[in-house]
Design a protein that fits this description.
single chain; about 300 residues; alpha/beta; 5-stranded mixed beta sheet; two-stranded antiparallel sheet; 10 helices; elongated; Transpos_IS3; RNaseH-like_sf
Length: about 300
Amino acid sequence: MSDVYAFIEAEKTTHGVAPLCRLLKVARSSFYAWLAGEQARGARRAADDVLAHEITMLHLASRCTYGVPRIHAELRRLGHRINRKRVERVMRERGIDGVTRRKRRGLTRPAKKAVPAADLLGRDFTATVPGMKLVGDITYIPTGEGWLYLATWLDLATREIVGYSMADHHRACLVVDALKMAAGRGRLKPGCIAHSDRGSEYTSDELRREIGRLGLRQSMGRTGSCFDNAAAESFFALLKEEIGTRHWPDRSTARAEIFAFVETFYNRQRLRRHPRWGYLTPLETRQRLEQENALVA
């Protein structure tokens, strides 16, 4: 029937609506009801096109990683009062998808005869004060020159990467350099927990001495239990999916892109759902917590 109404709409200036309706045996009221609905549908399609353009720009700004929840959160932050189901429909119709994380193979190699530290976290990956709980891990990045190894320390209160280091090896000095970076930024408090797995880099005397020098407390999960350091491993899964590159031509290119991802996008732009405040970036979360803790003090 829509085709009949569309024909009447196209020919009404030549033959008139009433004669066409009599000829095609449709009620004029039905035609006008269809016409009003078609105008409304056209307005909705135009509005969806505008929304789709804005969603596309936000998706590109997220390095093509955001799915419906974060796109919806970004639109709300920009002042748009919009239903999440509408965002989901528009993204589905336009084929705009976020990324899905894959499982990764770990680097953990327990050191022989090493004496591990006690587990001070007990899988409690929450914190209310920045600089009191860190989790660390190492991953490897494939390049045309061989592996590039990345060590990071993540603050559990803010989910910021507060320290990181990259090298063509994964000796103990890699994680020590990352920890020195975190301490050098003034983000760590006395007695801060530095939690990791039981890999040889983390049971090394070099790291133990640095942790003692900085006045921190060392913590380790159990051997073979990835869940004991899940927050650190989760960041690497996120990085490898959202950075968008599977294999770099050389280590210097990989270094530059990882630096940009961590410092420009992840810490300052990427939204994460906070249990109390909704979607915030790690930087915004730290600022909120610092303000809140200052008021309490």
